[in-house]
Amino acid sequence: MGFFDSVSKSLGITQSEEVDNIDEVIDSVEMDSVDVLHEAADFYVKPISLHSESDVTVVLDELKAKNLVLLNVSGMKKNTAKLKMVVDNIKTHMHKINGDIARIDEDKILLTPSKVKIIKTKRH
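and the corresponding structure tokens:
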């Protein structure tokens, strides 16, 4: 079974129905949410790139949905003052929702919703 057969089956399209263009069936926004290889999960780890202050809304929406966020801040590293302000804003929100935040590396920050904590000590 090929990829398009899997997508067709998950969308309820039989082989007898012809689809000239997959965009007629599902647009690219919807394709991001369709995972034909795995079962649906209660929560997800979502990678998000931070390019502007408006991206914070997306991050906060994902945390409200109880998803974990792997935030890539490399897009804002040129403006360190703005990056610091945005990260401080996110930290304040994380405190309010009883979430957690941890720096993974120079460019990535892990954010968790309430009741999910990050162990920050290293084991040797």
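(Above: one complete record from the training split.) Residues 15-19, 22-31 have pLDDT under 50 and may be disordered.
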